[in-house]
Design goal:
- By secondary structure, this protein is an alpha/beta fold.
- It is built from 14 helices and 12 strands.
- It has helices spanning 3-9, 50-63, 74-82, 99-107, 124-130, 153-162, 175-178, 213-226, 232-243, 245-264, 283-289, 307-313, 343-349, 365-378; strands at residues 67-71, 90-94, 115-119, 135-141, 166-170, 188-192, 206-210, 269-273, 296-301, 318-319, 329-331, 355-359.
- It has a 7-stranded mixed sheet, sandwiched between helices. It has a 5-stranded mixed sheet with strand order 8-9-12-11-10, with helices on one face.
- Strand 2, helix 4 and strand 3 form a beta-alpha-beta unit.
- Bound molecules: pyridoxal-5'-phosphate.
- Pyridoxal-5'-phosphate is lined by residues 73-75, 98, 100, 141, 145, 170, 172, 192, 194, 204, 206, 337.
Length: 385
């Protein structure tokens, strides 16, 4: 089945009972035992629920994995992936990784003896130098949040395996429509389903997919026992969002390309980060391992433009957290997604105070660009109050 068709028709029949075309929402928490201690398929909805199970089967198929999991947030999915590690292990993480992922490591897992180190995961030689005998995982984002650095998933996975470690990929920025890390050798893929999968700024959720049975056992046990499960209604909304994932991402990527061309000529932009432009250092690798550059881009505002005035001058575009939605969203990583980093960590990762991140939506690209143009003009020099 073609991937686009899989997105719409999903895994098997949505409703074998009544042949409903859309997925039924089973709000039940429990299931009547047929006889004392005899259950049919389901026992209790923290463990498994028909609506969530349908989504989880779809996730597995989309990611090219054997096992799929749906969580209450992207963070719950990342927490489950990291829970596959042990006390004394060390994890190497992409330098500019989502701030919440760093927060998990610094606030919780470090207390349980899991250490971490930042690495330039885009540079395989440097990454190999960063390995030591305690390194049991590499956690990468590609393209990364917020600087769109690209990491070669196949090369990192091979390197990790050579050292007896696993590779975890946060695939939030591209989604399985554009990139399937498990097929490139990664061991666990996680994603914030809050973003492209649901796509309409109305669900907080996460997913994970795995091939290895032992790893799946760990991720699944964390899901069921910590209980950070996707709820039935949210599972339904994600399945609904997935039906339009392909058409949304095609349109968002087209808009991002147009925005990138505009920004590349704009004096208000000092440096542009977009892996869809041939001069981006990760262009070739991203082209090889994915079906497209996606719709996330970032830029440094030029000196002479006021950052706060730029954000406050936007009228159409929403300034706020999150990404991957039908609306274009603009965010300030230093005070938003990466406020968990210390100023020193942000400096080392290259996340400056003038960095702006854009998630291109599906609006008319001319309207998006016009709003940016106005905000640049109003934030220039003495133009702002
Ligand atoms: C790359 C990335 N991973 C994970 C997350 C966490 O996802 P959630 O907010 O659904 O917990 C985010 C959230 O912004 C993200 O950008």
């Amino acid at each position: 089945m073609n991937f686009q068709t899989l997105l719409v028709h999903g895994y098997g029949e949505a409703d074998p009972s009544y042949n409903a075309v859309s997925l039924p929402i089973y709000l039940t928490t429990t299931y009547r035992q047929q006889k004392f201690c005899e259950h049919e398929k389901f026992t209790y909805s923290r463990g498994a629920n028909p609506t969530r199970q349908y989504l989880e089967s779809l996730i597995a198929q989309m990611e090219g994995g054997k096992f799929g999991f749906a969580f209450s947030s992207g963070m719950a999915a990342s927490a489950a992936a990291l829970a596959a590690l042990h006390t004394g292990d060390r994890v190497l993480v992409t330098k500019n990784i989502y701030g919440g992922t760093l927060g998990l490591l610094t606030n919780f897992y470090s207390d349980f003896g899991l250490s971490y180190g930042f690495a330039d995961t885009g540079n395989i030689e440097k990454l190999e130098e960063a390995f030591d005998e305690k390194t049991k995982a590499v956690f990468i984002e590609t393209p990364s949040n917020p600087l769109l650095d690209v990491t070669d998933i196949e090369a990192v996975s091979a390197l990790a395996h050579k050292h007896g470690a696993i590779t975890i990929v946060d695939n939030t920025f591209l989604s399985p429509y554009l990139q399937r890390p498990l097929e490139l050798g990664a061991d666990i893929v996680v994603e914030s389903a809050t973003k492209f999968l649901s796509g309409h700024s109305d669900v907080i959720a996460g997913i994970a997919a795995v091939n290895d049975e032992k790893l799946a056992g760990k991720v699944g046990a964390f899901q069921r026992l910590a209980g950070g499960i996707a709820q039935p209604f949210d599972s339904y909304l994600i399945v609904r969002g997935i039906k339009t994932l392909g058409v949304r991402i095609d349109r968002q990527t087209e808009n991002a390309g147009k925005i990138a061309v505009f920004l590349s000529k704009e004096p208000a932009v000092q440096k542009l980060y977009y892996p869809g432009l041939p001069d981006h250092p990760g262009y070739a690798v991203n082209r090889r391992q994915s079906k497209g550059p996606g719709s996330m881009l970032s830029f440094d505002l030029s000196p002479g433009y006021d950052t706060a005035a730029f954000f406050d001058s936007l009228e159409l575009l929403a300034v706020g957290a999150s990404l991957g939605s039908v609306e274009t969203l603009v965010q300030h990583p230093a005070t938003g997604s990466h406020s968990n980093f210390t100023p020193e960590q942000r400096r080392e990762a290259g996340i400056g105070d003038r960095l702006v991140r854009i998630s291109a939506g599906i609006e008319d690209s001319g309207d998006i660009i016009e709003d940016l143009r106005r905000a640049f003009a109003q934030s220039k020099g003495d133009n702002h109050a």
